[in-house]
Amino acid sequence: MNVLVIGRGGREHSIVRKLAESERVDTIFAAPGNAGMTEATPVSISEQDSEALIAFAKQNEVAWTIVGPEVPLLEGVVNAFRKEGLTIFGPTKEAALIEGSKAFAKEVMASSGTPTGAYRTFSDEEEAISYLESVDFPIVIKANGLAAGKGVVIAGDEQEAQQAIRGMLGGEQFGDAGKTVVIEEFLEGEEFSLMAFVDGRDVYPMIPAQDYKRAFDDDQGPNTGGMGAYAPSENIPASEVERAVESILKPVAEALVDMGRSFTGILYAGCILTDEGAKVIEFNARFGDPETQVVLPLLENDLIQVMEDVAGGRDPKIRWKQATCAGVVVASSGYPGSYEKGHPLPEFKEDPASFSIYAGVKEGQGNLVSDGGRVMLVGSVQPTLEEAAAHVYKSLKPVTSPYFFYRTDIARHKSMSSSSSSEYK
């Protein structure tokens, strides 16, 4: 069959690589893809151009389309494909609102009894500021909508909180995304990412992953889109993962069905293991990034078969390798702030036990050059986490370019118990 993957980043490249393992897949198209996705045929169509994507899928007899990023989901690409009778894996825009609106996500959690931090939602600036008199600090202030990973402030005192509220509700800092804010209890504990294949009330969990949001070693520096990850998470007992599936993923999936917003696709729960058990920090309506890059290499099943089974109401009987995968992101110097593009990718030491996932790259004079903040991820699958990290850093050791940097403690610095602030976005 022919398969179309919508997206251009590392998450989508990881999906493409996994699809390329399938004997059932003939051609993989990536729209728009990137120059590092050599397993796929690039298609010069924007992720948000549903009309052109539909036309392409029809013209090229695409059997399955898989959506990577959140924006086309929230704009209704799945709705549009289904209206045309095309098979696509992902939630409708109504179901994807679980990611698109933090206030809506909180409402779903409240109605389903899902454990999460205490919260209040505000659209009035003065009401929000008055509420601060009754809270304990630190406190979390979130712009309700998508804000490119920048719509969250961890306020240590009332002055910081007021400044954040005025910037969101009283200004144009985040546009429409900041017209409503969620003020939420600050949670502490061990973080983990838990993704699942979902169709209506049927939930098939993946292994938990640990990602690293801070830019620099020891969880220092600004929040990023993710500087690395490993799976399965060694910090979370299996019993707690099972409890999270039963108390978080399943109740939310059922609540969405009951609300007339039945979810089909990948449901992602950003969780934190507190003294009171696992609680939810956020929900996403698609594969996480960079978690996907370390979870999919451990999946033994044919990915397209899993999606067919899930969407068809059948148990995919998911199997996982008895191994560990670690991945380290190579980023442009200056990220997540300003950075330069167009620099040739650094030379890597060949290690047959490692693999590369490309994200912010493009073709430049016959070679790959940087074209984004997170440029690529180097990963390795090994029997133990220590071995996986060792192989990754063996490949990265020669990287000395001033135009790139990476963390040196991914999968080595295991304790993520400082706070949930690194996961908030």
TrEMBL record:
Pfam families in alphabetical order: GARS_A, GARS_C, GARS_N
GO molecular function: ligase activity
Known pathway: Purine metabolism; IMP biosynthesis via de novo pathway; N(1)-(5-phospho-D-ribosyl)glycinamide from 5-phospho-alpha-D-ribose 1-diphosphate: step 2/2
Taxonomy, superkingdom: Bacteria
Keyword line: ATP-binding, Ligase, Nucleotide-binding, Purine biosynthesis
The ATP-grasp domain, residue ranges: 106-312
Cross-referenced PROSITE patterns: ATP_GRASP, GARS
Catalysis performed (reactions): 5-phospho-beta-D-ribosylamine + glycine + ATP = N(1)-(5-phospho-beta-D-ribosyl)glycinamide + ADP + phosphate + H(+)
Cofactor(s) required, per the database record: Mn(2+); Mg(2+)
The enzyme's E.C. designation: 6.3.4.13
InterPro entries noted in UniProt: ATP-grasp, ATP_grasp_subdomain_1, PreATP-grasp_dom_sf, PRibGlycinamid_synth_ATP-grasp, PRibGlycinamide_synth, PRibGlycinamide_synth_C-dom, PRibGlycinamide_synth_C_sf, PRibGlycinamide_synth_CS
Entry coiled-coil feature ranges: none
NCBIfam families in the record: purD
PANTHER family: PHOSPHORIBOSYLAMINE--GLYCINE LIGASE, PHOSPHORIBOSYLAMINE--GLYCINE LIGASE, CHLOROPLASTIC
Family recorded in the similarity comment: Belongs to the GARS family.
Name this protein carries in UniProt: Phosphoribosylamine--glycine ligase
Organism name: Pontibacillus salipaludis
